[in-house]
Amino acid sequence: MDVGFLGFSVAGLVVGFIVGMTGVGGGSLMTPILLWFGINPATAVGTDLLYAAITKGSGVWVHGRNKNIDWKITGWLALGSVPAAALTLLYLKSLHTEPQAMGSVIKQALGVVLFLTALAILFKKRLQTFASRHAGDRYNLSPNALNALTVFTGVVLGVMVSLTSIGAGALGTVGLFLLYPFLATRRLVGTEIAHAVPLTLVAGMGHASMGNMDWSLLGYLLLGSLPGIYLGSHLSGRVSDEILRPCLAVMLLLIGYKLAF
After folding, report:
1. What is the pLDDT of residue 1?
2. Spatial CB neighbours of 69, under 8 Å, sequence gap ≥ 6
3. What angle do CA 126, 183, 78 make, to 5 degrees?
4. Backbone phi, then psi, for 71, in 5-degree steps?
C-alpha cells in the first residue's frame, strides 16, 4: 500500500463525502484534485468521467425504481449531448499529438466551467425564484421549440463535460429548472442523473480510447468515494445548506481562478 494509493483513496473519500452531503461537487472537485496530485489534465478528465458514470449509475437504478426520471427529457438532452461529446472528442484527438496544447485547452476550459458551476451553486435559490416567476413564459413556447432548447442545452453540456468532466451536475440541473420550472425536484434530480450517465460514459470511453485513462487510479478513487458518499448522505441536512453551498462555491471560484489564470 503506497502513498499514491492512500492519497487517491482519501481524495475519493473526501469528494464522496461532500457529494453525499450536498448532492454536487463530484467532477468539479475531483478533476482539480487530480491535477494537484500531478495527474496529466487529459488523464484526469478521462478517469473522472468514468468515475462519474459508475458512481451515478446506481443513482439511476434507484431513481428509476422510484419513477423519478422523465425519460422524454433525458432523451432530448442526450440527442444534443452525445453527438456534441463525440465531436469534442474528435477535436481533442486532433490535439493528441501535442499533449501541451491539449493540456492547455483542458485547463482553460476547466477554469471557465468551474466559475460557472460556482455561480450556479451560489445563486441556486435566486435562479429557482426567477424560473418560477417566469414559468408561464415556457408555456408560450411550442413543444417543438421547448424540445429544441432542450437539445441545445444538451449540446452545451456535451461540450463542457467532454472537455472538463464538469457541468453535468450543477449546470445540468440549472438548465433543467430554467426550462422545466414545474418539474418536481425529485424528478429534476433523477432526470439530470439519468442524462449524466450516458454522457459521462460516452465521453469517458472516448478519452480511454485516446489513452486518457488510468484504471488503477479509478479503482483507488472508487474505493474511497463509495463509503464517503454513504457517510455524507447520512449527515446530509445536519449542516445548513446556507453554509455548505457558499463554502463550496468559494472553493470552486478559487480553483477556477487558479486554473484559468
Report:
1. 41
2. 60, 63, 187, 190, 191, 193, 194
3. 100
4. -70, -25
